[in-house]
Every structure is written in C-alpha cells, then in structure tokens.
From TrEMBL:
The protein's name: Amine dehydrogenase
InterPro entries in UniProt: Metamine_DH_Hvc, Quino_amine_DH_bsu, WD40/YVTN_repeat-like_dom_sf
GO cellular component: periplasmic space
Keywords associated with the record: Disulfide bond, Electron transport, Oxidoreductase, Periplasm, Signal, Transport
Top-level lineage group: Bacteria
UniProt GO molecular function: aliphatic amine dehydrogenase activity
Species in which this protein is naturally found: Ramlibacter monticola
Length: 383
C-alpha cells in the first residue's frame, strides 16, 4: 500500500525551501518608543474614574476633547482626588495606597505628574487622613500662587492638610470641625474658605510657613436642614457661585477682609416647582464667564436623595439679568466643565453610557459625542 502525506502536511522539499527563505529574510528587530503627547490645550480633559468595582485601582483618563481621542492614563489609587496646578504644568493627585492592596499599612501621598508627558515627577507623603470619597472639586485645591496644596481630611473628624509644594513637605494641619471643602481665594493666595454645616463660611489665612490662626466665620447664609448647598462651585473672578438642592443660587464675594454674601436668587419658577424640577449631579453646573451664563443640570420629580440624579435638562441662567433664558437637552449629564479660554466649549459626562458630549454655547444643539471612556467616571477637569 503506497504511503500518503498526512492531511495538510507540505512535501519535504517545499518545507525546506520555505525555511531557507525565512532564514534569509529575517524581520528587523523592533525598537520600542514612547509616542510624545501633543501640547496640552484648553480641550484636554482629565476624567476622574474611581473604578468602583475595584476601588483600590482608580484612574484619571487623559482625553483630547477636540478630537474625542484617548491620550493616556494616570493611576489615582484608592479614592484619589486631583487638581491641575495654576500654571497648568502639573497634575496633583491626593490618594491612598495599602501595602496589601485591599488591606495592610496605609500610606497617603500627593503625586505630582507632568502634564507634558504624564510622567511622575515626585511624591510627598502626607498624614493618612485624606478624605476617601468620590472626587469633587472642593476636596483638593492649590492656592492661587501655586505655593500650597490644600487637601480635605476625614477621620471622620475634618481637617485640612497644607502641603508646601516649594519645599515638598507637609507644612501644617488645620482643623475645620463641622466644615467641608477647600475653596482658594483667586486674588488673595494666602486665603481659603470652607463651607460649614451650620450654613456659615469659615475663612483661613495662611502665613509664609503654611500655618493659620483661628478662622473668620460669616453669619449663616443658607439653611442646611431645609435647603443645603452642593459642594461644587464655580468662580467668576472673585465671585464664588454655589447652588442649593432646591434651586437657590448664592453669590459670595471672596475679596476684602471677609466674604460678602449677596441676596440669593431662586431660579425655579412656580410652574417648574409644581413638576418638582431641581438641580442634580456631581459637578452639576458650569460657567461661561464671557457671557456670564451658568449651565445647570436639572431633573424633574425631585425626591429625597435625588440630588445626585443626572440632568434631564440643562437650564441656562443669565447671571446679570437673574433669569433663565433657555432649557436644553441634558444628555443625562452627571458632571460638566467649560473650557478655560475662548473659543468656549461645554463638555458633559453622560451617566447613561460614560460618553463625553460637547457643544459650542453659541450653537448648543449641534453636539459632538465620543466613544465611552472608563468604567465609572465621575468628574472632569479641563486643562
């Protein structure tokens, strides 16, 4: 019986020819290289993602908002909060690491990443007290001159770690009992304000060593039991803007010897109140300083606990005229941010699908949408 080659096998002579050819045409050795980032512009987005299914491994996704293109990622550890430095050259991350991933010795650090190439430049160990919560704007902030970094603590007692960025060390810890958040004064870098549970503001002034005396406390300007304020805020020059759960807009001048509170304005009219429209989200409003217009995420059928609901609509408020001038589709926005320079563009983070949505305020219905980013993104900051 004649022998036949196995099914699929090549004749011996042909196999030898292929092997000889492969030996003569070896592939070139590849050289690994890092693709440089394009210079950051006003449309670069730092998208905070605490990755809630595995909280020890948070991320900050770096995205080109103009092209809706993924650029890179920075690790943010467990419950990290971040802020870009005033000169936009450094991304600071305040975070926690455990020696056994989900247990063990706790170490809290400030990590400083170069926004040019996202490399780690240095880290500073801080007291193991940094507030472990979902990222919001008021958890970590740099003073206006970039000298100090302010980090909200919770043990659950509240205090603020002051980090000297010039000397790369902890300068002090300031108790702010019953208060929450750090809001630096734009024109007075030594001052910052915190919001207190009795409806007041407490203002601290740092000396050259990063220490502070007793705070200056305002009179109560909101009722924390009937209508508390969200801890998100926007600044219009020296004017601090905050919004309450039931639609009161507060304006506070952070200038002079002490904050000055303007009479609040409730922007929800009687008809909308009957439908129980109310603000909702995390970074739930954004400011266009050129037109002095505020974009606020709103939902109807407000109920206890709905203050984190994403936006069914965006309401456009004219701050000068103190009136609502438009109601736009909300794209279920959970957070939003406006570019820091013209031409302005508003970026929304949709809670429906983790997509980014953006539009020109002059043409708000012509919207650009991205692919989904991340796992559980919450907060975005623009370069």
């Amino acid at each position: 019986m004649p022998l036949h080659p196995a099914r699929g096998a090549l004749p011996l002579g042909l196999s030898l020819l292929i092997a000889a050819g492969a030996a003569q045409a070896q592939l070139a050795v590849e050289t690994l290289a890092m693709e440089p980032l394009a210079p950051a512009d006003a449309h670069r987005i730092y998208l905070s993602d605490p990755t809630m299914p595995h909280l020890v491994d948070g991320r900050i996704h770096v995205i080109d908002g103009a092209a809706m293109k993924y650029l890179g990622m920075v690790g943010s550890g467990f419950a990290g909060s971040s802020v870009v430095s005033p000169d936009r050259k450094t991304l600071y991350v305040a975070t926690t690491y455990l020696s056994r991933l989900q247990r063990g010795t706790r170490t809290d650090v400030i990590e400083a990443y170069d926004t040019g190439d996202l490399t780690l430049r240095y880290e500073i160990e801080i007291p193991a007290k940094h507030a472990q919560s979902l990222p919001i704007k008021a958890l970590t902030a740099a003073t206006g001159d970039g000298r100090f970094l302010l980090v909200q603590n919770a043990t659950p007692a509240t205090s603020i770690t002051v980090v000297d960025l010039a000397q790369k060390r902890v300068a002090s810890e300031i108790a702010n009992p019953g208060c929450w958040g750090v809001i630096p004064w734009p024109s007075a870098p030594a001052k910052f304000t915190t919001v207190c549970g009795d409806g007041t503001l407490a203002t601290f002034e740092l000396n050259s060593e990063g220490k502070a005396q007793e705070p200056l406390v305002t009179k109560s300007f909101f009722d924390p039991d009937r209508d508390p304020v969200f801890m998100h805020y926007e600044m219009l020059g020296d004017e601090l803007l905050m919004v309450s759960y039931y639609g009161a807009l507060y304006s506070v001048q952070l200038a002079g010897a002490a904050p000055t509170v303007r009479e609040p304005w409730n922007f929800i009219d009687a008809a909308a109140r009957k439908q129980r429209w109310a603000p909702g989200g995390y970074a739930l409003f954004a400011l266009d300083p050129d037109t002095r217009r505020l974009y606020v995420g709103m939902h109807d059928q407000q109920a206890e606990g709905s203050h984190k609901n994403p936006a069914k609509e965006l309401w456009v408020l004219d701050l000068a005229a103190r009136k609502r001038i438009a109601r736009l589709p909300g794209d279920l926005a959970l957070s939003m941010a406006m570019t820091r320079s013209a031409p302005r563009r508003l970026y929304l983070l949709s809670a429906a699908d983790n997509k980014l949505v953006s539009f020109d305020p002059a043409n708000p219905r012509a919207r650009k949408r991205s692919a989904p980013f991340g796992e559980t993104p919450i907060y975005l900051e623009l370069h």
